[in-house]
Amino acid sequence: NNNFIMGRTVMNFFVTYDYASELSGIEQAQKKRAKAFQMFGENIKLVSLAYNRFLFKICNQNGIRHNQLINMYDYFQGLVAKKIDEIPTKNVSDLIQGDEYVLTRNTDKLEIYNGQDHIKNIYLIVDGVKNDAIDKVEYFDKFNNLIRVDYFDIRGFLSMSDIIGQRGGVSREINYDLKGNSVLESYYHTDSQGKIQIHWMLNHDSNIYYFDNKGALESKFLDLISNVYGENNIFISDRAYATDRGLINMKSARKLFIFWHNVFVPDNGRPNITKPFDTLINEINNSNRIDGLLAATDKEVEDLTTTTKNHLKVYKLNSFIKFPKEIEKNRLDNDEKKEYDIITIARISPEKRILLGIEIFANLHEALPEIHWDIFGYGEQKYINKLQNIIFNKNLSDFIKIHSYKNDVAYIYRNAKLFWMLSKFEGFNMSQAEGQSYGLPTIAFDIDYGPSELIINNKNGVLVPNNDTVSFYQETLKLLKNPTVLSEMSSNACLESDKYSPEFFWNQWSRIINNWEN
To answer: What is the gyration radius of the CA atoms in the chain, in angstroms?
Structure first.
C-alpha cells in the first residue's frame, strides 16, 4: 500500500484535458487505472483542465462519480464540494424582467423585446425531458449589435460570459461563482504582429493573481489541489500535449509521471532517426522536473528510451486491466449465436484505415455473401459521410454498417465473432484488448505498437504484415469458414487476457514507486 509516505495520506491525481461524451481509449484506460488503485486502497482524483459546461452530464453518462473528479473551472467557481441540490438554478422566467416580453418563441429560442427594441435572445436546451433548461443568452445594444453572451452550466447556473468588442470578436471572458461574482477573467488583445494574446486574472481566496498564459494558470490550480494533501503527491499525465504546460511548471514538490499512450514521432517514423514530437522534446529539456515516462508495451518502452537518450526513466505500465467478474457475467459461450460477424470499435478517422477495410471487405463479400462488418465509433461527420458514400457505391450498404459510439461495448464484444484492427499506427489499443478479454480474436496489421503486444500469432488472433491486404483477407476468410479454429482462438483470447489482472498491474506500479522512493 502506497497510501502513506512518512505517515501521511498521498493523493494520486490522473490528469487529462477534457472529457467528451464519447470517451477515447485514453480516458477508458484512466478509468480502469482508477478502479485498480482504489482496489488496493489508494486515494485517487481525476483532474481535467478544460472549460466544459456540460461536464456534469458527461460524467453521468460515462460512470464517472462527481466526487472523483476535480475540474479546474469548477474548482475556481466553488463547485467541487457542491451537491447538485445545493446549486441554485435559473429559469427562463428569471431572465424576463420589468417591461420585457417574448415576441416570438420556437422550440429552443425566445426573442425578448422591450418596447420596440430587440434586447436579447434566450436559447434553451431541449432534450425531450426538460425543455426549459437555459443554454445561453445573447444581449444586444439599441442598434441590434451583439454585446454579450451568457453561457449556462448544464446544472442550471450562469457559468460564463463573453463580452463582445467593437469589432465583433470576444474581448473578455468572465467565469462566475454561484453568487454571480467574477472569479476568473481572460482578456484578449492583438499585439503589434497581429497575433491574439490572452491574459488571465484569477480572484481566489481573497487574492488576485495575474497570468500571461494558461499554462501558468493551470500550474497554480494544480499546486492548489496538491497542497490540500501536503507535498509529494503523485501526478500521472494522460494527455501530455495538453497537460504538460501546467504539470511541468508546478512549484510544489510532487512526483510526475507522463503516460505516452501512442506514438511519439511524426508520421509513424523510426524513433532512432526521426525527430520526436515537440511535446517529447520539451519533456527531455525538462527531465529534472519529471520522474518518469510510462508506456504500455515493451516496444514503446524500448523506443522511448532510445528517443529520450536516457534523459528520462521509462517504465512499463499496463493501460488495460481486466476485471474478471465484469467479464464472466457478460461473456457468451463460443457456441452461442453471435449477432455480429466482424466488428471494429475505433475513432472513425483516416489513420484507422476504414477505407482499406472496405476494400478488403469487398473481396470477402464475394466469397462469403452473407457476411457483415459493423463499425462502432465517433468522428467528423464529413469523413463518416465520405465512407458511407463509398460503401453505397460498392453496393455494400446492407453489409457494412457504421454505428454511433456506444457506452455498452460489453454487449458488442460478447456478441461478435471477430475483431478487425486496421490502424496505420496505434499504441496499446484498448478496444482490441477489451474484445480479447471477452474471447474475441483479432486480426490486425503488425504495426507499432499494440497488436504484437496483444496477439500471439495464430493462437488468440492473427498478425498480418502491414499493408498486406491479400493476407488480411485470406486470414479472415480462413477463420470465418472454420468455426472450430475460431472457437479455439476465442478461448485462447480470453485466457491470454488474464495476464492483465489488477494484481499484475499493481505489481508493476509498486515497482515504479519503489524505484523512485529508493
So the answer is: 26
pTM equals: 0.91
Q: Which pLDDT score, from 0 to 100, does residue 333 have?
A: 59
- C-alpha cell at position 287: 527531465
Give DSSP secondary structure letters for 160-177: EEEEE-TTSSEEEEEEE-
> Quick one: cell of 113?
423585446
Tell me how far apart the alpha carbons of residues 228 and 55 are, in angstroms, rounded to a whole number. Answer: 23
Residues of the chain by 3-state class (helix, strand, coil), percent to 5 = 35, 25, 35
Nearest to 122 by CA among 94, 144, 142, 145: 94
Q: CA–CA separation, 451 vs 429, rounded Å? A: 8
Q: How many CB atoms lie within 10 A of CB 492?
A: 18
The C-alpha atoms of residue 154 and residue 89 are separated, in whole angstroms, by 10
* Phi and psi based region of residue 192 (left: phi greater than 0; alpha: psi -120 to 50; beta: remaining): alpha
State the Cα–Cα distance between residues 436 and 423, nearest whole angstrom: 17
Q: Are strands 233-237 and 11-16 parallel, antiparallel or unpaired?
A: parallel
Judge whether 479 and 334 are in contact, CB under 8 Å. Answer: no
* pLDDT tens-digit series, residues 63-107: 998 889 999 999 999 998 788 888 989 999 999 999 999 999 988
Q: Which of 116, 117, 110 is nearest to 96 (CA)?
A: 110
Contact 200, 186 (CB under 8 A): yes
Contact 141, 132 (CB under 8 A): no
Q: What is the spatial distance between Cα 270 and Cα 448, in angstroms, rounded to a whole number?
A: 10
Strand partners for 137: 122, 150
Q: What is the DSSP string of 40-89?
A: TT-EEEEEE-S--TTHHHHHHHTT--GGGEEEHHHHHTT-TT--GGGS--
Alpha-carbon gap, residue 55 to 20, rounded angstroms: 8
What's the rounded Cα separation, in Å, for the pair 313 and 301? 9
The C-alpha cell that represents 59 in the structure block: 460524467
Q: Tell me the pLDDT band of 6, cut-offs 50, 70 and 90.
A: very low
Residues 246-280 pLDDT 10s: 999 999 999 999 999 887 877 767 777 778 889 99
Q: Is the pLDDT of residue 7 over 70?
A: no
Q: Is 102 helix (H, G, I), strand (E, B) or coil?
A: strand
Query: At 151, which helix (H) or strand (E)?
Result: strand 146-152
Dihedral sign (CA 305, 309, 312, 313): positive
89 φ/ψ angles, rounded to the nearest 5 degrees: -120, 155
Angstrom distance (rounded) from CA 247 to CA 256: 8
Q: Are 312 and 292 in contact (CB under 8 A)?
A: yes
